[in-house]
């Protein structure tokens, strides 16, 4: 009885340790060749914020309060989504050696890659919290409601994971999906409320936050991090349902098409 109980725990513990180790290695290797090293993971979103701030605040004269923080939240969520989807389209080819010559399965490879992106996201989230609460003049301060960012991020993680399954499965037979996704996400970027008011967004695109789940995630993240509000529960539940549907569809495609990856790629 003791062996039956303890062996599975050890097995899952080792798997989790392996996933975390792979995620840390990948995160470090991503910035290894840069002169700035890991500092680049923190500087990139700040540079993005600076560029869009100049364009929309200084040139276009947007009247949004705490606009730098408003941008910051949208961009760190969007960057995670983009890195986790576009960055995994070719994963079955680039990491073929891991599932062919080790005891790792394909799911572990995807999850470790997204965990690596999660490390960067949480570095940037800490930077945002420090900036918003200690630098931003229009800050509402820290609140227990900020903790809602954890389930909101889990929502984004599940959505990104499901899409990475779908995109990489399609890539096995249609390499053009890489270019198609680049064009699609370029359009989606400007159809998400990253740098303009939510009221303008809903006025121009009524109910589009339900069609574009990234929009709903960004909206709720701002609610809990900036405005000391609960997330919009209808949108929150819808986005989780959307994410689990995409994940379910992705798992089916990976199961059907992923088995042919070794011979096709």
Give a description of the structure.
- This protein has helices spanning 2-30, 39-59, 67-86, 91-94, 96-100, 106-134, 149-171, 177-190, 198-204, 208-211, 213-225, 233-257, 261-264.
- The chain is globular.
- The protein has 13 helices and no strands.
- Helix content is 75%, strand content 0%.
- It has one domain.
- With 265 residues, the protein is mainly alpha-helical.
- The longest helix has 29 residues, at 2-30.
- Helix 3 runs antiparallel to helix 6.
- The model is unreliable at 1-12 (pLDDT under 50).
- It is a multi-pass membrane protein.
- It holds the Pfam family ABC2_membrane.
- This is Transport permease protein.
Nutshell version of this structure?
With 265 residues, the chain is mainly alpha-helical. The protein has helices spanning 2-30, 39-59, 67-86, 91-94, 96-100, 106-134, 149-171, 177-190, 198-204, 208-211, 213-225, 233-257, 261-264. α2 crosses α3.
């Amino acid at each position: 009885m003791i062996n039956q109980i303890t062996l599975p725990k050890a097995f899952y513990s080792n798997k989790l340790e392996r996933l975390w180790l792979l995620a840390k290695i990948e995160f470090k290797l991503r910035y290894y060749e840069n002169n700035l090293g890991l500092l680049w993971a923190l500087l990139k979103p700040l540079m993005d914020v600076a560029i869009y701030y100049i364009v929309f605040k200084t040139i276009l004269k947007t009247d949004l309060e705490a606009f730098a923080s408003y941008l910051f939240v949208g961009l760190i969520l969007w960057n995670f989504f983009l890195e986790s989807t576009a960055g995994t389209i070719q994963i079955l080819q680039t990491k073929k050696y891991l599932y062919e010559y080790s005891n790792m399965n394909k799911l572990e490879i995807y999850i470790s890659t997204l965990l690596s992106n999660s490390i960067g996201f949480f570095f940037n989230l800490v930077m945002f919290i420090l900036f918003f609460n200690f630098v931003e003049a229009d800050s509402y301060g820290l609140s227990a409601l900020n903790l809602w960012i954890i389930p909101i991020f889990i929502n984004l993680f599940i959505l990104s994971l499901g899409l990475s399954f779908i995109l990489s499965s399609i890539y096995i037979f249609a390499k053009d999906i890489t270019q198609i996704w680049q064009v699609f996400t370029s359009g989606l970027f400007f159809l998400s409320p990253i740098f303009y008011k939510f009221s303008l967004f809903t006025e121009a695109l009524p109910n589009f936050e339900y069609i574009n789940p990234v929009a709903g995630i960004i909206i709720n993240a701002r609610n809990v991090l900036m405005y000391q509000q609960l997330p919009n529960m209808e949108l929150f539940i819808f986005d989780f349902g959307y994410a689990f549907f995409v994940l379910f569809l992705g798992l089916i495609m990976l199961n059907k098409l992923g088995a042919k990856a070794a011979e096709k790629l």
